[in-house]
Design a protein that fits this description.
Length: 204
């Protein structure tokens, strides 16, 4: 993404904050809490996150951390997001929680830490003129995952035209992922216009 595209994304979220209030799932760009939680429920099919290290790319307010706390225990969590408003709120919400950290950074350019599981919800849905951006980022995120990468995308065949958000061809994405990963899973039955890909490090 170039600087103008990144600035457009940040402006979009600041507009959403002004419209829907700071701290809401709508300010993150989700339609509602159900759509956010349905995505999380699908992303955790990546594996057993108990006692694992988890990297949440595009973490927003840390909502995934709260979701994981209801399903797993003993895990280390790192959240990264480029929006300073999101990171400030996340740090406030989880200030007293051990083994939890948030960093303001652009995941597309920053060196990412290694983690057992890398989870990316929503970050590959923004429009970008550079067609290779999405495949490059999938490769980068997968390289940070020791066990599995789980990410979601909007489905091009079912997502309407949008000025900022963009859908992707599911089969094209899966073809790329199968080149990189020995075992790839795809889920597309949880929301009408979304799909989730899990790229495993082993073929078990």
């Amino acid at each position: 993404m170039d600087l103008i595209e990144k600035a457009t994304v940040m402006h979009y979220h600041r507009h959403r904050i002004a419209e829907f209030q700071h701290g809401t799932v709508e300010s993150l760009g989700w339609r509602n809490a159900h759509s956010q939680q349905a995505r999380y429920q699908t992303l955790i099919k990546a594996g057993d996150l108990n006692d694992a290290a988890v990297l949440d790319v595009g973490c927003g307010y840390g909502d995934l951390k709260a979701f994981l706390d209801r399903h797993f225990s003993g895990f280390d969590y790192i959240g990264v997001d480029q929006m300073p408003e999101f990171i400030a709120e996340a740090r406030k919400r989880f200030a007293s929680i051990e083994r939890t950290a948030f960093y303001q950074t652009d995941f597309s350019t920053a060196a990412l830490p290694q983690a057992d599981y890398v989870i990316a919800s929503g970050v590959l849905g923004y429009r970008c003129k550079n067609e290779s951006f999405y495949t490059d980022m999938i490769g980068k995120l997968y390289n940070s995952a020791k066990v599995a990468l789980a990410f979601n995308m909007l489905d091009k065949s079912r997502f309407p035209q949008h000025d900022l958000l963009v859908g992707h061809d599911r089969e094209e994405i899966l073809t790329l992922c199968r080149v990189l990963s020995p075992r790839v899973e795809c889920f597309n039955d949880y929301l009408e216009d979304d799909f989730t890909v899990v790229m495993h490090r082993n073929d078990g």
